[in-house]
């Protein structure tokens, strides 16, 4: 048997088969990490001490904030991810949240025949601010535009958004003041931690909606609860939270106008297979010396 791959969480069986076809021994998932040539990880936290037990780490997904990147770089461990593999699935979930909130779907389902029809905000003509313009942000922008929304982009690099003809907003605070819906699609970094907090929510118009299918740490959850409970924000759709899974007694679960799903946006059949196959292929490519540099967070020199 050839090299060993430790898999931290279940992945698509086709991805496991691909590794085995190329003489890789697959071990895990287990409660404790075990040394191997490669680590294939979904959402499990990988510490600075953990990374030293592998030659490379393949992330099943896009965000790598669960991996100690600085420690990996220092140790010469390459980290590769699967950009674009789940973009359509996450965009679907994002639009689902927007529609469910803007159409007051829960109230419609609970409506009693003969009683007044619940008020519906709707999405047509609404102003959507997308924060982050990677593969998922682009897909959300296209879908929202097709629904008749007025889409504006705030991102670290606005060149592509401008090229595609979207209005751009270099100043986040000014953009928030004109956003009926805000959707997060940026990575979690030191710069984006709590990018939306009490001040940001106060800047948003009364009744505005928030959707977060990116990372929980982008949002100050205590401030979000306050903004929702006060009635200033109209609702929120969250596929991600700071603590996952979200405890049953968490204050967010007590807010009436929040829809919470368990970090499931990426798990459509197609996206789950694509992420697994790309993560497995990254391992094969790395050990064959043909790693794609645009999929790789390279070690420091």
Description:
With 301 residues, the protein is α/β, with parallel strands linked by helices. The protein has 2 domains: 4-84 and 269-297, NAD(P)-binding Rossmann-like Domain (Rossmann fold), CATH 3.40.50; 87-260, Rossmann fold. Helix content is 33%, strand content 16%. It has 11 helices and 12 strands. The chain has helices spanning 13-21, 48-51, 69-74, 87-102, 105-110, 135-146, 159-163, 172-176, 198-203, 221-229, 269-288; strands at residues 4-7, 25-27, 38-41, 56-59, 78-80, 127-131, 150-154, 181-184, 208-212, 233-238, 258-260, 296-297. A 6-stranded mixed beta sheet has the order 2-1-3-4-5-12. Helix 1 (13-21) runs parallel beside helix 11 (269-288) and helix 4 crosses helix 6 (135-146).
In CATH, the topology of the largest domain is named: Rossmann fold
What general outline do the C-alpha atoms trace?
elongated
Largest sheet: 6 strands, mixed
Radius of gyration over C-alpha positions, nearest whole angstrom: 21 Å
What proportion strand? Answer: 15-25%
The CATH homologous superfamily of the largest domain is named: NAD(P)-binding Rossmann-like Domain
Instruction: Domain count, please report it.
Output: 2
Indicate the percent of residues in helices. 25-40%
**Oligomer type:** single chain
What is the number of E strands? 12
Q: List the secondary-structure elements in sequence, H or E.
A: EHEEHEHEHHEHEHHEHEHEEHE
Uncertain regions spanning at least 5 consecutive residues:
none
Q: State the end-to-end distance.
A: 32 Å
Q: Judging by the overall fold, what is the CATH architecture of the largest domain? A: 3-Layer(aba) Sandwich
Mean pLDDT, all residues: 94
